[in-house]
Amino acid sequence: MFNNRRKSALTIGTALMAGSLVLGLTACSSSDSDSVKVGLITKTDSNPYFVKLREAAQAKADSSGAELVALAGAFDGDNEGQVAAIENLVGQGVKGILITPNSSTGVLDAIKKARDAGVVVIALDTATDPEDAVDATFATDNKAAGVSQGEWVKGTLGTTAPQVIMLDGTAGGTVDTFRHDGFLEGMGLTDGSSEIVGQENTNGDQTKAQTAMENLLQRAPGVNALYTINEPAAAGAYQAIQSAGRADQITIGSIDGSCTGIANVKSGIIGATVLQFPAKMAEQGVDAVVKFAQDGTKPSGFNDTGSQLVTDKPVAGIESQDTAWGEANCWG
Q1: DSSP string, 302-323
Q2: I need a labelling partner for 274 at 20 to 30 A (CA). Which of 39, 87, 141, 147 fits?
């Protein structure tokens, strides 16, 4: 998935303008004025993960005879922008909204208003808190993905005592919490473990992660294991590690499964990553909204779209695929 992580908020006026632009584009691909209108709100419109998710949603909407209206926050963490986008889409008469919430709690009031207005709301990639604030969730089991990352890092270290740095994403998101907790579970650690020698939020941003890692290397020179919320954070951290002459001393795990990330695993920048399937999330979400529009059937519960550990350095007892498989299944 998260698939880091990581400015001013998107205003309602900007959201309306963005919506008009998207409507203009989708109108060109559909002449059916009665087509089902599906709203999509991603955390940003620039992160390759969300670009892939949007492209898959658009393709599925086109093949289903539906119309996609795609909006996004101005940056990772832009709750106000996402609230404005929800209000915008409800005003446009969408049948359903697919959303990757920046905060698992920050958009709940707007989601409730949308559902009260008869709009089905589905979380993609990032669950809300509580989970039943939306009708359904289509996402990676991010805790399981974190466990896979942690087990591989632990197995790679072998008998060496871990000294771990945690490069988290954005506080308040379920993706961040589940991946973080899963990694620690896979490592056999807890948040209070003395083996954790440093921790910073990076918003999943490569530049922020590089800066954070530069600072943490000064404070924790003995680090030998690195958790990263996503592949951009891993790439940024690697730049800092390489500059410090430590590239062969620190084991890096990550999550995402982008084609860039898989290439970084193949070249040794990242030791292993956990591949997500954002296209499945988008496709299943669009299908669910179209079905709701057709016969009133609402989706429900958590729907796991799967994940897969990818590495060219397998650990005995931990199921994984190599980068050749990753290249054939990556996104972006």
Answers
A1: EEE--EEEEESS--TTS--B-H
A2: 39
**Burial (CB count <10 Å: 0-12, 13-18, 19+), residue 236:** buried
Q: What is the CA radius of gyration of the chain?
A: 20
Grouping H, G, I as helix, E, B as strand and the rest as coil, residue 210 is helix
CA 329 to CA 326: how far, in whole Å?
A: 5
Alpha-carbon distance 4 to 203, whole Å?
Answer: 5
Joined tokens for residue 201: 């939020």
CA dist 273 and 326 (Å) reads 10
Quote the CA–CA distance of 256 and 92 in Å, as a whole number: 33
Name residue 276's beta-bridge partners: 307
Is residue 231 a contact partner of residue 206, using CB atoms and an 8 Å limit?
no
pLDDT band per the 50, 70, 90 thresholds, residue 41: very high
The residue among 6 and 257 whose pLDDT is bigger is 257
Are 304 and 145 within 8 A, CB to CB? no
Q: In what order do the strands lie in the sheet with 251-256?
A: 196-201, 164-168, 225-228, 251-256, 272-276, 307-311
Torsion sign over Cα 278, 281, 283, 289 = negative
- Residue 275, classed as helix, strand or coil, is strand
Cα atoms found within 13 Å of the Cα of residue 296, Cβ hemisphere only: 0
